[in-house]
Amino acid sequence: MANIKSAIKRVQISERNRLRNKAYKSAVRTLTKKYFQAVDAYVSEPGADAENTIKFTRSAAVSKIDRAVKRGVYHRNNGDRKKSRLDRYYKAATASLSS
Description:
88% of the residues lie in helices and 0% in strands. By secondary structure, the chain is mainly α. It has helices at residues 5-44, 48-71, 76-98. The chain contains 3 helices and no strands. The chain has a single domain (5-98), classed as Methane Monooxygenase Hydroxylase, Chain G, domain 1, CATH 1.20.58. It starts with a helix and ends with a helix.
């Protein structure tokens, strides 16, 4: 354990930040998985309800990613890559529907 007052404070701050970062990263992973499940459900049974679910889950995931970038949990490019991954998954999954 640190003995200097500033070092003790840094340990406390880094622990607080670690927990915050962990919460954001976990939430982003969860929302991303829900989005992928919604897209898979839409591909298996296309419909208006499934499409609305996709829009809602994508919005939630992108919002959480943007918030994590704003808070410094993710780098801007990392957030953009995660959002791009969502769009690529949807495009690849729905390409089989239009064919």
